[in-house]
Amino acid sequence: MIRVMKMRKLFLSMLLSCFLVMNMNVLHAKENTQDTIAATLKSKDVIVMNRDTKEILFAKNIKKRIYPASMTKIMTAIVVIENTKHFDKIVEAVPSDTKVIRDEASIAGLLIGERMRIQDALSCMMLASGSDAAKMLARYTTGNTKDFVDLMNNKAKELHLQDTHFTNVYGKYDKQHYTTVKDMALLMDYAMENPIFQKIVASDQVKIKTNAFEERIAENFVYATFDKAKLDHSYITGAKSGSMDETGLNLASTAEKDGRRVVIVSAEAPIDEKHTNHVVDAAHLYQWYFTNYQKKIIYKKGDTVAIKGNILTPSFHVALPSDIYIEAPQGVFNAYEKTFVSTNQKMIVKPNDVVGILTIKTKNTTTTYEIISDGWHIAISVYVIATLLIILILWLIMKKRRQSKPPILITKNKQKPMKKKP
């Protein structure tokens, strides 16, 4: 009996030791996973952000001001796209467009008088990083670059880019032309929701016909840099780089794998001989993210949430159109809080009406989701119905009483004619 007890104690001790070691390893992995990847990076400023939850998974100097260089063209492109109705319209390069050569800016090599479609000019700007194409598109959109820059800054305010300001359309160095990697991540995430922008930046190359060339080729400069560094970029859905002596190598890119969407922005990587430090950093970060992070599903697609009513509106249920989740390192799930607030005040709810706000808080991020109605819902409270019925009944009773009373006859007294005095 004593021997059995000793065996049990030994077994429990071993089990407890294994449990403690496993937990220590998990905590150690959680603490050091970011330190490990940080040690491999050459970029001074980096952000990794989940595009669906907006959760920041890696942060390094994310609020430090940087000079965006040609990443500026992300904003230039989205402003052109949102102010253009017909992308087959023709734009023509004029002498002022080609003067960017004096600024040592990257160019698509447009010729004075060369004409092409707006769609093709956007490809020259985003794929070949043509500053000449950027000036041509800005001038076409607003008549001059000054008014176009105003639109860029207005868009930055609209997107709540808190520390971003532009002075030109292609990224020329200027102390008043700045952003942060956090703002740039928000901008890139927004731009990639536009199908025209997304299609352009995802292309390997575009063949363009102009009046000067039977076939002009705009090659994706970022993808070519990945190829030069012998790095896979099949998972990348869009990218724009930028470089200058004052800021080094910058890169904004997005990727998708197994339904998980992420945006990474890095800045101030040293300019190496091959000009590849920024894409090497991006490759390491994507590998780190997809390998080490996993989803924690909070609500699955199709789950319903109750939209609570008040004195005017009763409760009803809405099905969620997609998964709602947070992310954490493998084997470790961050603590989170979720808060749901019903906002509906309507008696009849239509499809796509906003009926509630879901807020999920983790250690680093607060994410807010608008809950959208999945169809028609009758939201007339029983209190309202009862009140209307009471009013209707009272009205009918009063009406019936008025009808049941006998009519009151009013007789007029006939006045006798007055006799005339003699």
Task: Give short descriptive properties of this protein.
alpha+beta, five-stranded antiparallel β-sheet, 422 residues, single chain, 10 helices, globular, three-stranded antiparallel β-sheet
- Work out the helix count: 10
Number of beta strands: 18
Low-confidence stretches: 1-6, 15-32
Give the radius of gyration. 33 Å
**Largest sheet, described in full?**
5 strands, antiparallel
> Which assembly state applies to the chains in this document?
single chain
Helix share of residues? Answer: 25-40%
Q: What global shape is seen? A: globular
Order of helices and strands: HEEHEEHHHHHEEHEEEHEEEEEEEEEH
In whole angstroms, the N-to-C terminal distance is 149 Å
Helical/strand content category: alpha+beta
Within the largest sheet, what's the order of strands?
A: 2-1-9-8-7
Q: How confident overall, as mean pLDDT?
A: 85
**What portion of the residues fall into strands of 2 or more residues?**
15-25%
Description of the molecule:
With 422 residues, this protein is α+β, with helices and mostly antiparallel strands. It is built from ten helices and 18 strands. It has a five-stranded antiparallel β-sheet with strand order 2-1-9-8-7, with helices on both faces. A three-stranded antiparallel β-sheet has the order 14-16-17, with no helix packed on it. β7 and β8 form a beta hairpin. α2 runs parallel beside α4, α3 packs antiparallel against α4 and α4 packs across α5. It is globular and about 105 Å long. It starts with a helix and ends in an 18-residue tail after the last helix. The N terminus is likely disordered.
